[in-house]
Design goal:
Helix content is 69%, strand content 0%. The longest helix has 24 residues. It is globular. The two termini are 20 Å apart.
């Protein structure tokens, strides 16, 4: 039941958003319309080439960004069925599983990616987030992946935060100490994952504030993949009842 409710809250229109959402309604509608047009084009192309991995990958992304999570999972899984070499590197499938409410599969996918790239703590954060849904917070912390090599900022501090070794406030103190305010990507990730940490701890309003900062920030002008994912997270949390 929890998985059904999680998915439904993402698919339904937002009914309880913050007073000042990060994207105006008109901009959000335009964005979703662009993805709808992309899906239409990929549908047509895949009728002629149903096993084209590149097209499946692109349509899967468009479905994910449109909150069509089962469809994204289906496209990504078909890629792997056609070419097993696609499996371990496919962190995007792990994200699709997460939003589809398939948390155990999500955690497993990020474990596979860890074997592919043992340096990327962002992958470990997603494995942890999926584990929280299955195991609970403290058991998930005990199951966090181990990293020996340095990762890009601010991920070492973010990882310590999710491990319970630092607070969200200490994360931003670290951001100030390392003079990361002018680093657009670093600030996006600090706000995004800081917001997710606050949500895990039950502080919804602070979580929404930080997620809003992530989505409304400079990356909105040239959206990255993870900006789109942060937008989905904001939409989901904003739709929840306080």
């Amino acid at each position: 039941m929890r998985r059904v409710l999680f998915l439904a809250s993402l698919l339904n229109p937002i009914v309880a958003v913050a007073v000042d959402p990060p994207i105006p309604a008109s901009g959000r509608a335009k964005l979703l319309d662009e993805f709808a047009q992309q899906i239409h084009r990929f549908d047509a192309a895949l009728k002629d080439s149903p096993n084209d991995i590149r097209l499946l990958s692109q349509r899967g992304d468009a479905h994910l960004f449109s909150a069509h999570f089962p469809e994204a999972v289906a496209d990504f899984e078909k890629m792997i069925a056609l070419d097993t070499a696609q499996d371990a590197p496919h962190w995007r499938l792990g994200i699709a599983y997460y939003f589809a409410g398939q948390f155990a599969k999500s955690a497993k996918q990020f474990e596979k990616y860890h074997d592919h790239d043992g340096r990327d703590r962002e992958n470990g954060i997603w494995k942890f987030l999926a584990d929280v849904k299955v195991l609970g917070l403290e058991p998930a912390r005990k199951s966090m992946l181990n990293y020996a090599r340095f990762d890009r900022e601010p991920f070492p501090t973010l990882y310590a935060m999710f491990a319970g070794e630092k607070t969200t406030d200490e994360l931003f103190a670290d951001v100030e100490a390392k003079k990361l305010r002018e680093n657009t990507a670093a600030m996006f990730f600090a706000n995004y994952y800081g917001g997710l940490n606050e949500e895990l701890l039950g502080r919804r309003e602070k979580a929404l504030e930080l997620l809003r900062e992530a989505v409304a920030g400079p990356l909105r002008a040239e959206p990255t993949y993870m900006w789109q994912v942060a937008r989905l997270h904001y939409d989901w949390l904003a739709a929840q009842q306080p």
